[in-house]
Amino acid sequence: MTDKYDVLVIGSGPGGYVAAIRAAQHGLRTAVIERDRLGGICLNWGCIPTKALLHGADVAHTLANLRPLGFSTSGVEFDMAQLVEFSRGVSGRLSDGIGYLMKKNGIDVISGTARLTGKGVVGVREGGDPASPLTEYRADHIILATGARPRSVPGVTPDGDRVWTYFDALVPQELPKSLLVIGSGAIGVEFASLYHDLGSAVTLVELAPQIMPVEDATVAGHVRRQFEKRGIEIHTGASVSELTVGADSVAVTVKCADGTLEERVVERVLVAAGIQGNIENLGLADVGVEVDRGFVTTDEWCRTSTFGIYAIGDVAGAPCLAHKASHEGVLCVDKLAGAPHVTPLDKDYVPGCTYSRPQVASLGLTEDQARATGRSLQIGQFDLQASGKALAIGEAEGFVKTIFDADSGELLGAHMVGPEVTEQIQGFGIARSLEATGDDLADVVFAHPTLSEAMHESVLSALGRPINM
């Protein structure tokens, strides 16, 4: 044994590093074990670099639509490698920032691959080499924050060249002329939108009856229409039945919803069919930590089945979102430290955001889910075609939809699609947290002209007193 900690965190993503900082703020001796770069998947290969690339796609869209504003361009060139370099630079800068935060808060950073080797004991091998010496660390509390990785699709094996995971899609050597995306969750939709705006011909294949399966059907339908209007080919209720990789292309057989087979030849295929928890080689079974369908089982306080071991973020299951991981990191540490007024996370009301064009943001129940509860509902929707600000910026395709319990006024769900809705959804999150009713939200004064006025108008619509529609 080389050292003893109060809290030992395995993984330094948005759950792990936040948990470590919160533990240090409680005065607990804390260390983080990381086998790669600080910041985890989100910062290095997920949320942040994807948004940097999407910013480039937004610029491409703006350049292609300047004439209505009185501008014209000529001789504009695009360098995919430069955009990738910008994206990687952003990630590198933020990873260095996490290192600074660890030092600032007095948190030890241990480099290597971790494994639970006994009660309150974690063994670490530098670089993950089985031949390297094992160093063991003891801790009263061990937090698993190991994240997740892309899920595989039967018969489709990523090779990093012709068949990509999202890791590969973040660092392409060149822009593919054509791309087929398998899966239309947030990752698949974002990359489909991104690559199409940059100039690739994109096909999107989804097994579920609608794209964006977890979103409200009205929102998903709107995004599909917008994607198809842009020229993105979409197949729902479909699957890839055969895939053959050639020297410079991929032949794909798509089994459509009606059972027919359609052939496509594309330059690249992106597998974006969900993620699975990083639970392997952690020694979970050896110490009695239960798992279910590839994720660690936890209670409302992030405690596993083994005393003193916790799990937060993606490794603990849906919703697999960075902000959920960070919130769980704080919740978990506050609870184990005995902080007052700690409340469990209501996972139904964690906001989900998709940074495609159009953007999508939502929290709470979809309309179908709300109706299934048997409650009496008040549902309002406001179209951005009636928004002065949306029209002024040329981005009036979209809407805001709100769902309330008609008897109590409780906000059950909020669903937004359109420009910058990912920056606005927090307003409904605050309202929900403060238990604001529809009447309370109706009394709020929204600034004019703003995109967020659509939120207010949607609430008024739900209450049966719309003004601008």
From TrEMBL:
Residues 5-329 form the FAD/NAD(P)-binding domain. It comes from the Bacteria. One of its GO terms (molecular function) is dihydrolipoyl dehydrogenase (NADH) activity. Keywords: Cytoplasm, Disulfide bond, FAD, Flavoprotein, NAD, Oxidoreductase, Redox-active center. SUPFAM superfamilies: FAD/NAD(P)-binding domain (SSF51905), FAD/NAD-linked reductases, dimerisation (C-terminal) domain (SSF55424). InterPro entries: Class-I_Pyr_Nuc-Dis_Oxidored, FAD/NAD-bd_sf, FAD/NAD-binding_dom, FAD/NAD-linked_Rdtase_dimer_sf, Lipoamide_DH, Pyr_nuc-diS_OxRdtase, Pyr_nucl-diS_OxRdtase_dimer, Pyr_OxRdtase_I_AS. Its EC number is 1.8.1.4. Its cofactor is FAD. Binds 1 FAD per subunit. It is found in: Cytoplasm. It holds the Pfam family Pyr_redox_2. Belongs to the class-I pyridine nucleotide-disulfide oxidoreductase family. This is Dihydrolipoyl dehydrogenase. It comes from Rhodococcus pseudokoreensis. The gene is lpdA.
